[in-house]
Description:
- The structure holds two protein chains of two kinds.
- The radius of gyration of chain A is 24 Å and the shape is globular.
- Chain A is an all-alpha fold.
- Chain A has helices spanning 5-24, 28-48, 55-69, 83-93, 98-113, 131-151, 160-173, 179-193, 195-206, 212-230, 233-252, 257-272, 279-282, 284-288, 296-319, and strands at 119-120, 123-124.
- The longest helix of chain A is centred in the C-terminal third of the chain and has 24 residues, at 296-319.
- In chain A, helix 2 runs antiparallel to helix 3 and helix 9 packs parallel to helix 11 (233-252).
- The mean pLDDT of chain A is 87.
- In chain A, 73% of the residues lie in helices and 1% in strands.
- By secondary structure, chain B is mainly α.
- Chain B folds into two domains: 4-52, no CATH class; 61-222.
- Helices cover 76% and strands 0% of the residues of chain B.
- Chain B is built from eleven helices and no strands.
- Chain B has helices spanning 4-15, 20-34, 39-52, 63-71, 74-84, 90-106, 115-135, 140-162, 169-182, 188-193, 196-222.
- The termini of chain B are far apart.
- The interface between A and B is large, with 146 and 120 residues.
Amino acid sequence: MIDAEWLYWLCGLFFLANAVLCGRERRYGAVAFWALLGLSFCYSTFVVAKTAAAWPLGLAVLVIAGLAGFGAVRKAELPAPTEAEQESSAAKLGNRLFVPALMIPLVALVFATMLASITVGGKPLLAAGTATLTGLGAGALIAVAVGLVLVRPAQPVGLGAPLREGSRLLQSIGWVVLLPQMLAVLGLLFDKSGVGKQVGTVLSGLLPGGSLLAAVVVYCVGMALFTVVMGNAFAAFPVMTAAVGWPVLIQQFHGNPALVFAVGMLAGFCGTLCTPMAANFNIVPAVLLEMKDRYGPIKAQLPTAIPLLACNIAIMYWLGF
Amino acid sequence: MLVLLGVALVVVGFALRLNPLLVVTASGIVTAVLGGVTPSQILDAFGNGFAGSRSVTIYVVTLPAIGLLDRFGLQQQATRLIGKLRVLTTGRLLATYLLIRQGTAALGLTGICGPAQTLRPLIAPMALGAATRRHGELSDPAIERVKAYSASADTVGLFFGEDIFLAVGSILLITGFVDTTYHLKLDALQIALWAIPTAVCALVIHSARLLWLDRRLAKELAR
Lengths: 321, 223
């Protein structure tokens, strides 16, 4: 059975290689950041398998976050390709450039649709839930290989080229690469500390009794707002459902549970569109696209999220009861 | 009630635009201490949370491929290609991508498109190329706007497509939580079906806004 751990090791090795490249430029803060991050990715395998203690990793994560938070990972001026170089190479290679780029989605598609159901000796070839991840990793590796074969005629490049260019992109992303995982940690700590229960108590206190519309609005808007704070509708769902969804909408007003819970979750997704706490969806794309305003995607999504939340309220109110 | 101070810390920290890593770390520790979590449990939570969430960082494995193609002019070629497809304005291109993203996500194929796989190498340069062809040289705010809308097409399509697919995390969470807590037998298919009205609304609202982007760019750049 193949799980996703080899991929995490690949990520870890990429971070370590990046640390080596930073070392050549004598940027020691960045070296420490990327090296620790790389080692943590590999060590995590044993934490997940429960064969190693979690606390040393926790300590390392705190150091990594501290290094980045206090400015040790400064942006480097890496030699970027010039527009003219890119134009001339695009003219030479033409549409063939799309072949490796399309390899990534195509291979991911093959893994998700065909390889996911293959079994070897009664066991699935790919561990449950990892087909897409594995496909993405395999697609990325195949794309590099095809890309190297393709660009060779245009210009002789060494095998280090993908690493160097990947490292250039990784360093332009910088410490933001860690943010989505830190937010996952925050969610875990919020959960352990009972934040959800407290918010639920506050919200059910606000709820006016007897009005179906008010209850629907509190459930949907509560899902959205709580998701904005937590960055994740999954964290908001159990809390809001225990506070309003189940006792009021289902037990008191006899709503259709499948509809109420499905639409409630989607109301939470409207919140995800608006929050920097959902960094992997809202901040990482801005950084990947080298935007000046990291909140740009959120600003573009807000005017969709608000009417969509209203739609969810309307759908639940009219179809759910 | 005291633990809500930790939540307030996050809100204030983000509002003041302090370094998000510090804000998140500090808030996590403060909340946990107020909630009576012991220091060793806090360290464990940092370790377990990090190890368990590595999948959100997996996109970095695509960077060597994307970087290599970037170096050899993929973005420029995407711009050239869109130059030949005159019917595809920025808005129409992004609305088409939204439909594809939502449709593939509804079939459970969430991994074939994404910010690193398709947005950065293909969609965003095409959207920018289409805008340049139509409106001439783009101003900085216009470039930012086209990039922001490109990112939004990807995210909106994903969110309101994936919930139609049966085996997605959110549906499993709903059935898992509700069935164990309230002893119901929810049908995952019913939940997926009731995600469709919202999915249609999302497609209509966001497509309209993406198509409206063409006019907005024309107006802004005509000045």
